[in-house]
Each structure stands twice: as structure tokens, then as C-alpha cells.
Amino acid sequence: MAIDSDAEQIFRENYAQELRKKKQSELEDERKKVNQQGMKTPGRRGEAIKHEEIDKEIVRRYKLGQKKLS
């Protein structure tokens, strides 16, 4: 994982907040959209950040679900 510039860090934080507001089905749709965009323009830093943040959000939700079951 590369060190983020200030602009990338702001983008990452804003995108993470946006993802937290989405329902699970919307999150899955967002992943599909990012994957499609990544195929069209591979190697873009924005798509890499989006993939990382979607993965983090999925893990966060999974952990919250596990805590509720305990």
C-alpha cells in the first residue's frame, strides 16, 4: 500500500463515509461498478483506493455482525 498524498487521503475519507451510508446491496453494486471501471482504465489510483475502502467496509460490517452474534 502506497503512502497517500493529502488529496488521496481526503478522497479516501470521503469515499469511506459514503460507503458507510450504503446498504449491503448498494455496496455490492458499487463494487461491480468499480470493477467495471477498473477494467476500462486499469492502474488508476482512484480505483485502487475505492477497492481498498470497499474491502475495509465489508470487513467492518462483518466484524459488527460477529459482535452482535456473540
Automatic annotation (TrEMBL):
<protein>
    <submittedName>
        <fullName>Uncharacterized protein</fullName>
    </submittedName>
</protein>
<feature type="region of interest" description="Disordered">
    <location>
        <begin position="22"/>
        <end position="52"/>
    </location>
</feature>
<feature type="compositionally biased region" description="Basic and acidic residues">
    <location>
        <begin position="24"/>
        <end position="33"/>
    </location>
</feature>
